[in-house]
Specification:
101 residues; 38% helix; 4 strands; Trna Endonuclease, Chain: A, domain 1; 4-stranded mixed beta sheet
């Protein structure tokens, strides 16, 4: 399946699997949090003293107003927040190597 045909759920599963392979702590935000905390990103990840909020969207996806508000709030507070649209994006953010032999 090509990147452009992947659903957001499939992309999230691919990214979570990659992160766990590289021993990142991955906290997936449960759907119930979205009703009380609109704009909360899909993932919170941490490893080696680094932590990031990760919002996952397909290339056609768009941030909601509440998601953009959360992004702005985190950035203003000096917290790293990223929009991830591909496995390549998460590789760049984490600095992990992804080599195929």
């Amino acid at each position: 399946m090509s990147k452009s045909m992947m659903t957001e759920s499939e992309l999230k599963n691919l990214i979570v699997g990659f992160l766990r392979l590289w021993n990142w702590v991955v906290i997936k935000m449960p759907p119930s949090i979205y009703t009380s905390g609109k704009g909360i990103p899909d993932l919170y990840i941490a490893k080696d003293g680094k932590s990031f909020w990760i919002e996952i969207k397909t290339p056609r996806g768009k941030l909601s107003i509440s998601q953009a508000g959360f992004r702005d709030l985190m950035r203003k507070a000096g917290i790293e927040w990223y929009l991830v649209m591909s496995l390549e994006d998460i590789i760049k953010i984490t600095g992990e190597k992804c080599e195929v032999s």
